[in-house]
Amino acid sequence: MRTAALIVAAGRGLRAGGGVPKQWRDLGGQPVAAHALRAFAGHPGIDLVVVVADADAAHAALGAILGADPGAVEIVAGGPTRRDSVLAGLRALEGRAERVLIHDAARPLVSRAVIDGVLAALEDGPAAAPGLPVVDALWKAADGAVAGSHPRDGLVRAQTPQGFHLAAILAAHLAWEGEAADDVEIARVAGLRVAVTPGDAANFKITTAADLSRAAENLSRNNGMSGDMDVRLGNGYDVHRFGPGDHVWLCGVKVPHGRGLQGHSDADVGMHAATDALYGALAAGDIGRHFPPSDPRWKGAESHVFLRHACDLARSAGWRIGNVDVTLVCEHPKIGPHADDMRATMAGIMGLDPDRVSVKATTSERLGFTGREEGIAALATATLVRP
User: Fold this and answer.
1) Residue 22 burial (CB count, 10 A)
2) Which pLDDT score is estimated for 38?
3) Contact 16, 22 (CB under 8 A)
4) Which terminus of the chain faces fewer neighbouring Cβ atoms within 10 Å, N or C?
5) Alpha carbon separation from 211 to 57, 157, 221 (Å, rounded)
6) Domains of the chain with CATH codes
7) Checking DSSP bridges between strand 99-104 and strand 3-8, what pairing results, if any?
8) Does 333 sit behind a cis peptide bond, omega within 30 degrees of 0 on the bond before it?
9) Residue from 322, 120, 109 nearest 203 by CA
10) Known binding site for a divalent metal cation: residues?
11) 8 A C-beta contact, residue 183 and residue 86
12) DSSP state of 206
């Protein structure tokens, strides 16, 4: 199935300064749009890249990249509005690809992981887009003062690339009238279910001169020009005792056993250790700080709630999760037969590839409380990376 990338670069926004549209401003010796273009042109899952832009401006700014492989990138003239430009690009791709990723040229630091997440979601549905959960409090303002608050539950900050089955999004655009916030709005009105995939705080949109400076700092760190990449490690440790029951929850998998684990939540000792490892890398305390056991809301809670919160907190602060390693310490139940399911479950919750998640087990040679089969312990290490 052929996949195309549609880079929207026809805007005329000048708020970033410099007297030219922001997508043609210099960023690390290249136009902003060139960085976005390179991310898709060099991706193994992208077969064709179309840039929607003013042809003269695009050829002048992207000449070096376009000249490298003229068959891989082409330019389509944009329209007076963003929607007109996207529609022009979609029409140019009709019959040449089955899927399309629509990306704003003003988001120059899109990562391969973000692109991979959208591509993977398109295997199972007609549309997908990356987003970051809103973690800040939201206020309503009036006359320069706080006039109220708004719940942030379920709110997500939209990013691009927004991916679609090409025929479906083209039909949605052709049926749409007027402007829209983004292509997801048009897709949803057409009845398409849009999956939300993990976003990245570094994948922000350049609008102002301050945004351009921030992007330059990020790019410098990526290129090693202003110090080493920022890497953090966190450790987690948790213990739960056995009690009555016929199963235990370990790393998100229900494992049959003659006893259960006791705890305020579902007592998933492996997932708790991984969650605390992420909080530790963030220097953000532990599960008890964010989900106190004194709060009845968390009694019997499923532990994926805690793990997702830690992952969202990391990504909202600009961190990428490098890997997570969990070791379960117990005599029984046997972990080996379930380890692959545990890895896959944890990876799905965290939005990671399974090869970035390790789940293994050891015994304590019949020593201590785990050796006496009084409970299970877990240790975890998590790596966070921020370019």
Assistant:
1) 28
2) 83
3) yes
4) N
5) 22, 17, 16
6) 3-222 (3.90.550.10), 230-386 (3.30.1330.50)
7) parallel
8) yes
9) 109
10) 238, 240, 272
11) yes
12) P
Q: Give this prediction's pTM.
A: 0.60
Half-sphere exposure of 8 (CA within 13 A, CB side): 26
**Helices first, then strands: H and E counts in the chain:** 12, 19
342: tokens are 């545990």
Number of neighbours of residue 293 by Cβ within 10 angstroms: 12
Burial of 139 (0-12, 13-18, 19+ CB in 10 A): exposed
CA 328 – CA 335 distance, rounded (Å) = 8
What distance in Å separates the CA atoms of residue 59 and residue 44, rounded to the nearest whole number? 24
Omega before 108 within 30 of 0, i.e. cis:
no
Instruction: Give strand ranges (E) for 1-88.
Output: 3-8, 26-27, 30-31, 48-53, 73-77
What is the model's pLDDT at position 28? Answer: 80
150 and 140 in contact (C-beta within 8 Å)?
A: yes
What are the start-end ranges of the E strands in 214-347? 230-243, 247-250, 253-256, 260-261, 320-329
Three-state DSSP class for 70? coil
pLDDT along the chain (387 residues), means of 10: 92 62 83 87 88 76 54 80 94 96 94 94 96 91 92 92 98 93 96 96 91 84 52 96 95 95 92 97 91 87 93 82 96 94 94 92 94 96 85
Annotated binding site: 238-240, 264-265, 272, 286-288, 362-365, 369, 372
Q: How many CB atoms lie within 10 A of CB 382?
A: 29
**In the chain, how long is the greatest CA-to-CA distance?**
75
DSSP 352: -
